[in-house]
Design brief:
The protein has helices at residues 2-8, 14-40, 43-66, 74-95, 100-121, 129-133, 141-160, 162-170, 172-177, 182-223, 227-252, 256-276. It is an all-alpha fold.
């Protein structure tokens, strides 16, 4: 433990410290948006948005290498594709003319396929694993600034429109009868999920995002039914899981994201058993 703390505050090894700070920062959007995802049962939407982002990453990598367009970064591509996917899902919600689960499935599959296709034809070697599973140890101070900025945007909308989002999440039909335009807030939530996905790709990767969006809030849901309490507990759980995952991965020399998710899964199982008894 002392060795890990010494490394954490060692000025010559900043990447461990950056990873620790990023883990704490990421716990906020995961806890806030994840709680809405679990309550609203929007896990598949979150999955579609995260996997669609790979399409933008693949195209950005191809354009960047093929045409020397270094300004078009993979995260910029992920942002454009994830937001576009969120917009398409939102249009489906508004029109109601197409089954939303069908649209989600198409977006999920198409995003992954487009991303892998462009990665395969990108000149040179590109390892898709870093995008699929993330690498929190590769984060820089610039990444932390970006994470903090997006955190601010997510928190602003989440808390400024908290009551409307709360009402829409728990009883959309009754809220609509009361004269609230629930479609707007459902679209807002979808776009906030998109932003969270973009924010977390570099930390935990595309595949792992669903786990962090759902497992901590699901654990919190065992012990509280109030959304505000669920959000707070989820934030602390995410922070603990991220920090403990970093510590054990450092100790055992294993991938941080995988260790953190295994830890989260174990906590979920134990919580389920305790709650069941």
């Amino acid at each position: 433990m002392n060795g890990f703390i010494n490394v954490l505050f060692n000025p010559d090894i900043p990447f461990i410290r950056f990873a620790f700070i990023a883990g704490l920062l990421s716990s906020i959007p995961f806890g806030v948006i994840g709680s809405f995802v679990v309550v609203k049962r929007m896990t598949y939407i979150a999955g579609a948005l995260s996997h669609a982002a790979l399409g933008g990453i693949g195209i950005a990598l191809y354009i960047g290498e093929k045409y020397d367009a270094s300004f078009f970064t993979p995260m910029m591509g992920a942002f454009l594709f994830s937001m576009l996917a969120g917009l398409l899902i939102s249009i489906t919600v508004i029109s109601g003319k197409e089954r939303i689960d069908t649209v989600i499935g198409v977006i999920w599959a198409a995003g992954m396929s487009i991303g892998l296709l462009f990665i395969s034809i990108t000149p040179g070697y590109v390892d898709p694993m870093s995008y699929l599973f993330g690498n929190i140890l590769l984060l820089t101070s610039s990444d932390l600034i970006l994470i903090s900025a997006l955190n601010g945007v997510i928190l602003f909308f989440s808390f400024f429109f908290y009551n409307q989002l709360l009402a829409t999440a728990f009883d959309e039909e009754f809220t609509h009868i009361r004269g609230v335009n629930t479609v707007i807030y459902q679209i807002m939530l979808i776009m906030l999920i998109s932003m969270t996905v973009i924010l977390m790709i570099s930390i935990v990767g595309i595949v792992m995002i669903i786990a962090f969006l759902t497992i901590p809030p699901a654990i919190s849901g065992f012990f509280t039914k109030r959304l505000r309490s669920m959000i707070i507990l989820s934030i602390f759980l995410c922070a603990f899981i991220m920090s403990a995952g970093l510590f054990f991965s450092y100790l055992l020399k294993l991938p941080t994201s995988s260790v953190a998710i295994i830890l989260a899964t174990l906590i979920y199982i134990v919580s389920f058993i305790i709650k069941k008894d």
